[in-house]
Amino acid sequence: MHTPLCRHAVGEPTDYAAQAVKLGFTEIGFSDHNPMIRDDYDDWHMRQDELDEYVEKVRKAQKDHPGLTIKLALEVDYLPGHEPWIRDLAARHPWDYFIGSVHYVSDAWDLDNPKKISEWKKRDPLEVWTAYFERLTRAAESGLFEIIGHADLPKKFCFYPQTDCTPLFDRFLAAARQHDVAIEINTAGLRKDCKEMYPSRQIVQMAAQRGVALTFASDAHAPGEVGMNFAEAVELARSAGYTHRRRFTQRKYDLLKL
Ligand SMILES: [Zn+2]
Ligand SMILES: [Zn+2]
After folding, report:
1. How far apart are the CA of 234 and the centre of ligand 2, in A?
2. Distance between alpha carbon 203 and the CA centroid of its chain, in Å?
3. Could you tell me which residues are beta bridge partners of residue 104?
């Protein structure tokens, strides 16, 4: 879940926590968009000098809601070459987990950015999905992340390849299994043009068959989105064959029954 520091989410962490308590959750986690390698990289990540403020906001939510466990995490953009920067961020605070996400398929194009939809129209969707899943596979292999975020993000605006993408999914999931990285079922996709969770039922089923671990995310960018559609997300996981999910504390996991 996010905070206003990324400039496209609303509500303080303590407000998200209040909503979680209201809904009966016993544990939540914040994973706002990481500071990038340069502050002028784009306009939708927290700045480098805001990282401590972010941690303080999460600490305040923890103090205000002592009955709720609140994890401190980041959603970290994976770009090749940024690995030393990501390790630097990892050393700065006692994080519970890093979600590794690919939004950028090149240094300049974040494929889910609504301001850049025109970029999709210049390319064959298969070319974009291939570049995306190659990066996602490298993210899973990098050893930098506990969880890989919204695994089929390129579907957001419904630019689907004509060709079957199963081999791309397969290579990514094999890397996730081999490097013991979880994927998440992220309900935010239901709130986008694609109108389905990330990732698709096909990918969730393939992941279950291959023994890839699982977490759940609402990817809330507003307090009202906390835990949205979780019952359906759990149903999807169960129907794909999942019996457990992972929970991370200080970058180690335990297993909880679904
Ligand atoms: Zn966001
Ligand atoms: Zn994301």
Report:
1. 20
2. 15
3. 110
Helix axes 201-210, 166-178, angle to 10 degrees: 40
Angle, helix 201-210 to helix 230-240, in steps of 10 degrees = 50
Q: Using the mean position of ligand 1's atoms as its centre, give its distance from the Cα of residue 17 in Å.
A: 18
Rg (CA), the chain: 17
In angstroms, what is the span from residue 84 Cα to ligand 1's centroid? 23
Residues 44, 240: Cα–Cα separation, whole Å = 34
Q: Is the Cβ–Cβ distance between 120 and 193 less than 8 Å?
A: no
Residues 6+ apart with CB under 8 A from 30: 1, 2, 3, 13, 16, 54, 58, 61, 70, 71, 72, 73
When pLDDT is cut at 50, 70 and 90, the band that residue 57 belongs to is: very high
pLDDT in tens, 130-181: 999 999 999 999 999 999 999 999 999 999 999 999 999 999 999 999 999 9
**Whole-angstrom distance, CA of residue 199 vs CA of residue 183:** 9
Please give the pLDDT value at position 160. 98
SS3 253: strand
- Helical axes 51-64 vs 13-23, angle rounded to 10°: 30
